[in-house]
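Sat 14:20. Reprocessing the chain from the morning session after the first attempt stalled halfway. Input below, unchanged.
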Amino acid sequence: MSIRPEDILCPTEAGLYCPPGGFHIDPLRPVSHALITHGHSDHARPGHGAVLATRQTLDIMAIRYGEDFAASRQAADGPLRIGNVTVSFHPAGHVLGSAQILITPDTGPRILVSGDYCRTPNPVCLPWEPIPCDIFITEATFGLPIFRHPDPLAEAGRLLASMAEFTERPHLVGVYALGKAQRMIALARLSGHDAPIAIHGALQRLCDYHVAQGIDLGPLVPASEPGEARLVLAPPSAFATPWVQRFRDPVLAYASGWMTVRAWARQRGIELPLVISDHVDWPQLTATIRELAPQEVWITHGAEDGLLRWCELNAIPARPLRLVGYEDEPE
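Finished this time. Tokens:
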């Protein structure tokens, strides 16, 4: 009897489950054995029995949830045999420690779970690697043709140009605590901003961890004591709290792929939308599918129907998984 892809990996209420390996990938609720692609809280949840992830993702989960986030944990160093499958972790280019997970059964198709991934060079994490596979499971966060992300260094240049124009106004940039904050700092440094950057307290521990991992972020100061720092980074949720009132006439900016949708930015009072994303945009998404040329594409969260239609038009077998519970890093 032939092995079907669903016999190797299938969607369940708890998330993707591998029956021959007895584990879930990025489960939505506590399970006995979990493989985690990266540390964002919509993929990495606490309370599992055993967790397998990259060493950096395990460290990040400990920072976010405490050392007892799981009953046991193991770093994914090289291919590992689990039940009747072999699993291996490969860089995804999304955030520090992020990985694609390849499942190789004894017989049957090789399945690649990409997690969240990005092909644009990112100075704070390893670059995405193309991994041959038979079934490619891809996100579709920006799975519509309107999403075409500009050069992130050019967007950082727009930020510095605004700071040069509005010298008396502090610039507050909304960034997620894991990945986007550190990338925004690194992009500002690459664009020539050598002065101290003020960071909200919610960003401190993860910034410290990146520095400990050898990523140079330059001089950082607490946003509670910004001194002469004119660039301030904070979680987007801070913009809706009294915290923001300590800054006089700030320029509110937000670094996200969603800033492509200008109406979304205007509704939130964002004066300087910066289109900087840690996900693939539409051209990268479709180019990846063409490059890997899998036998079949499975689509998870995001604009599933848009990508599904593109696959149909290009005669690429595809199906939506309709998994719920995944989004950009929740506040």
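The domain at 5-146+279-320 is CATH 3.60.15.10 (Metallo-beta-lactamase; Chain A).
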